[in-house]
Amino acid sequence: MGRIAAALFTTVDGSAERPDLWHGPYFDEAMGRAVDRHTSRCEAYLMGRVLYDQWSQYWPGNDSDPFAEFINPIRKYVLSSTLQEADWEGTTVLPDLDAVRALRERTEGTIGITGSLRTVASLLEAGLLDELVLLVDPVVVSGERRWTDELGRTPLELVSSEALPTGVLHLVYRPAAEG
Question: Is the pTM of this model over 0.85?
Fold first, then answer.
């Protein structure tokens, strides 16, 4: 059975909706290595519908960024009850969490996910997320969705922590048993 590992850029106040507006000053070589550790272990990638719509318009045919070399050839899955078919090569639509559960059971290795806040929350609540990687930027943004907005009580166990040179905290959690 595989594992699902999500990575999110977030802020001290939990904002995570628009990292493109505040994350840039904190992205350095150390953070690049942390992101690479996440992506390099992925056998497949899962995303929600909104992220799929954005990325499927941007990444295919894009060769100006090293991430394209990762995301274009990897097996991709999109969790969506409204998308009927995916036109991005190598992408399969999963209509519900039962399909995600089946994917996890038949996959060897790690299924990665980035962004997709609603999807991450759904996976956590369904007990399908095995690891949560947070890159916490030292800034308060306010006014945008937080990665925790759609979650109920969700106990997490800290696996590792590292302070990066820019003040970013690289935190790795796994779900913990209710205590």
Answer: yes
